[in-house]
Amino acid sequence: MAAELPLSPLIAATTQWLTSAFPSARGAFQRSLAEAQARQAVTVAAWLRYPSEFDGQLVALTGPGGAAKLDWITGADAHAHGNGREAWRTWVDEVVASWAACLLSTPRLAEAAVLTVSGSAHSGPVPADFRRLARPGEDDRRAAALLRHPDLLAPIADLHRAELVDLLGGPEA
Q: pLDDT tens, 5-25?
């Protein structure tokens, strides 16, 4: 899984953005379950968006673009982020966040995406387990109620949903 290393900052930052924008309101265990689901969705989305090691290295070199548009859409830009302590926000990838939102809110897309990346250049000799994303349990659903809510995620998911659906061959539902 050498190709994941260049994507690690992007995956971490985009996961943090999603869990900050759509937080779990409960305790540490619930927040951990929600973060695991977000990280799995972001990882799958990043692997789809940057399918080769070269793609990962290129985005690591150029940078993914940042969270400004996503913040504006969710209203998070009302809080000043220019204090220098949130440099991670520059590593948020808008398309990856949008695709992750699609995966979290649309089970058929999540299943198709997990199937697509299972044989990709990113998967190593040990298959990655995306069960919390593709087959969430009741605890997972409760912990990530906001993070999986289709109506709340729609403004983010709809930004790049068409490209994801095209990439996956149209498994919309």
A: 689 999 999 999 999 999 987
d(CA 100, CA 84) in angstroms, rounded, equals 26
**What phi, psi does 13 have (nearest 5°)?**
-70, -40
DSSP H or E stretch at residue 94: helix 94-105
Rounded to 5 degrees, what angle do the CA atoms 37, 136, 164 make? 60
Structure confidence by residue, pLDDT tens digits, 27-57: 899 999 999 999 999 999 999 999 988 998 9
CB 66 within 8 A of CB 90: yes
Q: What is the pTM of this model?
A: 0.91
Dist CA 111 CA 33 (whole Å):
19
Quote the CA–CA distance of 166 and 86 in Å, as a whole number. Answer: 34
